[in-house]
Amino acid sequence: MFHDADALLLARFQFGFTISFHFIFPAFTIGLASYLAVLEGLWLKTGQAVYLDLYKYWLKIFAVVFAMGVVSGIVMSYQFGSNWAVFSDRAGPVIGPLMAYEVLTAFFLEAGFLGVMLFGMQKVGRHLHFFATLMVAVGTFISAFWILSVNSWMQTPAGYTTNAAGQFVPASGWLPIIFNPSFPYRLVHTVTAAYLTTALAVGAVGAWHLLRDSGHAHARKMFSMAMWMAALVAPVQIFVGDQHGLNTLEHQPAKIMAMEGHYQSHPDGAPLILFGIPNDAEQRMEHAIEIPRLGSLILKHDLHAPLAGLDSIAPENRPPAKVVFWSFRVMVGLGVLMLALGALSLLARLAGKLYEWRWLKRFAVLMGPAGFIAVIAGWITTEVGRQPFTVYGLLRTAESASPLAAPAVGASLVAFVVVYFAVFGLGSWYLLKLMSRAPQPHEPEPANAPAHAAGITPASALASRPGASHG
Amino acid sequence: MADPVLTIIWGGILAFAVFMYVVMDGFDLGIGILFSTLKVGRERDTAMNSIAPVWDGNETWLVLGGGGLLAAFPLAYAVIMSALYAPLIAMLLALVFRGVAFEFRWRDPAHRAFWDFAFTGGSFLAAFMQGIMLGALLQGVHIEGRAYAGGWWDWLTPFSLLTGASVVSGYTLLGACWLNWKTSDETQARARRWMRVLAPATLVAILAVSIATPFLGNQYFQRWFSMPRVLFTAQVPLIIAILTWRFVRSLRRNHELAPFVITIAVFGLSYVGLGISMYPYLVPNSITLDMAAAPQSSQAFMLVGAAVLVPLILAYTAWSYWVFRGKVAHEGYH
Fold first, then answer.
1. ipTM > 0.95, yes or no
2. Phi, psi of A396 (to 5 degrees)
3. What is the pLDDT of residues B260-285, one digit of tens each?
4. Are B59 and A163 a contacting pair at CB < 8 A?
5. The pTM is what?
6. Structural domain spans, chain B
7. C or N: which end of chain A has fewer Cβ atoms within 10 Å?
8. In chain A, what are the domain boundaries?
């Protein structure tokens, strides 16, 4: 009835499904935590109430996103063992300590200061509260650092040797493992993506409220801040992505071949395939629209440089080009639209019409979810492009899974799909509800801020002095 | 190669992390289980607010337990998590419901009853599954080579159901003790009533698990009752008896913090008892600490971080509890 192959496929679906859902939340919290730190810092520096109002407005949204990130993240920390036992056993001595460092340096830091950040505004002094916000923001970044180091090691393993039990173990020292060849590129590309994603979401919310009331001061402030981010960061991200791609070409050429749709080798200059229908079964691109030699120019900076195709890779080691080719195009296409949004906002700003051009605001609203989609598309590109390996070139995905019966994995997959769509679907609905309400002067704190009988310090009494924040 | 001293140290650190989790998320989950018995409105809001700022930190010890096990004893992590597949996944999904309920119940007043139910149901299921996982591990899992070789319903036995019920009872008692400490008036009175029911129930549960465990085989009997070990192990039930007496006394005298502390101490002793049963195995009769240990370089690298960071974590966690110290008042959030 069921075969091992079914169990493997189900386990892969489950991991892909749960991690894609999870990834959306940290992609937002990494950027949002930094945005909140900037807002609170600007409030402390300038004393302008608009920053505090925006802080409290986004804090409520942050709390919901963060909760979803936490609960979906705990699933990930156990799923390596539950579904990928062989991988865990063999790669654990290398990736385990990096994940343990993530917990020790990042998760506790975030969780330890989150309570004060969310509920402590009236309980600690404003500088201490700002410190808590900073710690949460720093925590999200440190978390990204470690988990992307783990992921990068799986993509470009380095600094390891194998022991008698077949485990990967450190060869000498941890720096070559942590700073493996693809890590710096992946870290910068992913964290920048998180910032850009957040900027687009904030910009969309600002634009939405400006469409109703183009004079709304709070909406203007966040729209302007977000458009600055989009204008400055989108071109940086495209450059970083290009560098990341060149790094991938060096270390995982098969992934680039799949991204580019290069089934065949091109000894004298490869074309850039804009679109086409990849046919993995016959290993050829159908209905390709391509620009001759441009592929070689982009990847090798030489029109006539030879470029190998998937036909140079053993068939059992080829990634599925069909998925990777499309997910890569979705990511790049959205990146170009982001660049356009940023550029148009600069134009509007120069013309002094940033808050007036309706089609710019409409465009910004449409681009609200673009960051999330691009992040997931990029993630699919890099992860599916790593196939058929979990540890690239060393441990095959088919050899990595737990010895579980297919019905067990099938049942858990169904449970995850149902629960995640229901819970996180509702959570997203609550987020949209929060966002659909415009920020107000004297924006309230999270509604469930718990009051405690003790613990109100003189410093916070001073901070909450009437008029101190809205003078 | 693994280093025996580092291996023991890491065994200790992970035991500490899991115990921190059991106590800290124990009272969170316990409050979740009691939640449905609290009055809608003020009483529920107060109970939830008493843990809202700290639950996330409490749950992080669970992540450290998992991540630490993967790092320090990868083989044990791989085998245990696949052996306990069904209860593990059920626990994770239960934690999803109870975790988001903290935020969602405030965001959707029209469906607050649903999220309150999700909070209670998620807390109950998570606690029950954790107990089942404990029982399933104690009764032993079938291993061949370096992999789990049993079926996916092996975990379900009368013994694992007993440990499941025990953990639910113990967590709920911790939750009631926390409410007794952090709330006042009506809520506190209700918590005290629950303590009077849950304390004997938990004691019976501890007793039942203690009696059943030596008969599971796995050399548990020898580890407890062989001379001269019995001179040491006999102290465990003795101290639990003394603590029980102290608990009854503190309840009679309406102490607020003492019952919570005593309950934690009873948890600690039960935990030591489990340690006596298990040591030196991580998976009974098949995988010892030494067999599962990661190489010396992995454990040493993490120890540097843990030595600095765990005290730091304890310090700012304590600070966070300090900021939210005192009784939770209802006033101030309308």
1. no
2. -80, 145
3. 999 999 999 999 989 988 888 999 88
4. no
5. 0.90
6. 4-213+282-323
7. N
8. 4-251+332-374+405-463
